[in-house]
Amino acid sequence: MAEPEKLSQDGQGLPAGAEKSADPVEPAAQNDDIEVGKILRHADKNDADEALKVIQGVEGETIVLTPEEEKRLLRKIDWNMMPLLCLVYGLNYLDKTTVSYASIMGLKRLPLAKWSAVNVIMWGLILACMAGTKDFATAMTVRVFLGVFEAAVSPGFALFTSQWYTIREQGSRTGIWFSFNGWGQILGGFVAYGIAVGTRAHPVAIKSWQLLFLVIGLFTSAIGVVFLFVMPDSQLNARFLTPHERVLAVERIRVNQQGVGNKHFKWYQFKEALTDPMVWGLAFYSLVANIPNGGITNYFSQLIVSFGFTPEQSLLLGTPGGAIEIIALVLCGWLGDRYRNRLLIGTWGLLLSILGILLIAFLPKSMPVGRLIGFYFTQASPTPFVALLSLISTNVAGWTKKTTVGAIYFISYCVGNIIGPQAFQDKDKPDYRPAQITIIVCWCLGLLDMLFIYFWCRRENARKARVRAEPGYRKIDGQEFYDLTDRENPEFVYSL
């Protein structure tokens, strides 16, 4: 095994002469396929993470963050960041379930399609435009544009979480804001029920499902305006923090070995993302897990009706499923951080969901309550997806690589959600037996994939430990903020 190159330092944590030459320094050694020398090649102050600017601004000072000060700072970050993240994410899910509610209020058969884009305000306005659709073609067109503007939410929030929170905090925070899917389901059920009953008693000029889209869409746009003016890009321009607190907020995430972002696109990081087996493990799970999600999210109201309940009853009976999702996500997120094992703890919700779909598939029709309970169990299925989403924040370093992995993850998410509704065919009503079988197979494949990711991360941690144990290995000062990838940084340890 080759010995890693000894690093001479000039007081800045850079290899000697790194600032004097623009030419990259070639790696001197390689241990397995972890190239330690890449630190030398990419440890360039002029192309480092933006967090380095904050640290350099107080160069010469000793930054001391006491436990009391860190708790106070964390509370301040939570109260200023989490409410908006939670509210917007709840609306993100409420949009998708609005299609399900509308399907039993008179609007039929809309496949789910989501594509990448950036603007919550436009997403709300496009959602409101659903009220004006007249047929499948116009509805499909609006849904495509809706997906374009809605797609920014999940990958953007994953980046926010990695910027602001430490490794030990990211799982629980991701679980909290993602759990507002459940709150969206609960709120959406009551809103849809109120509109359905209210418009029947007091008819209005438009249909009930049209009014539903207008109410939720315009409210989403209003929240988007608030989000636009309140949410900071990073610690560097957070108005709710003092200049000193911005320094502390950056310093406290040094343990992540990542930083807060680098706006330069780096081809080597892009290529590394495409050749990393862990990344494709994440993408595969996102695909197979969201085939069931795409179907259940759009058709859960019709599924409940198939158990023997009325359409209006299904609007209310779907709301407890949201509570199950909230409890499962928050509990698994908290336990995953506490016991430092998000992957295995996250699989609990998937196992409960597999039990739920088995109850739906194999309980006799004479037991509608048992099948309804099975549906509630399936609402715990997002726990592995959220665990992996939080691991994109934690286990993928290098800004270009992280954004690339986020894109791959959510492209897979979109494809799964596009495929999912196709399993729910009208000819299979009321039981949707092919859809049930599809869901069982997908979740079992997802379970195996979670185990692959778990053992891959353990293997990589063991290899990096061998690198750090080599004679002559030395850590570069400040390398946490040099925008290194997780694979090229020997100090980077994957969370499980």
UniProtKB/TrEMBL annotation:
InterPro entries: MFS, MFS_trans_sf. Its main location: membrane. Residues 1-32 are annotated as: Disordered. Keywords: Membrane, Transmembrane, Transmembrane helix, Transport. It is a multi-pass membrane protein. GO terms for molecular function: transmembrane transporter activity. Gene3D superfamilies: MFS general substrate transporter like domains (1.20.1250.20). The chain crosses the membrane at residues 114-132, 144-165, 177-199, 211-231, 315-336, 343-363, 369-392, 404-424, 436-457. It is found in: Membrane. Signal peptide: none annotated. One of its GO terms (cellular component) is membrane. It holds the Pfam family MFS_1. It comes from the Eukaryota. This is Uncharacterized protein. It comes from Thyridium curvatum.
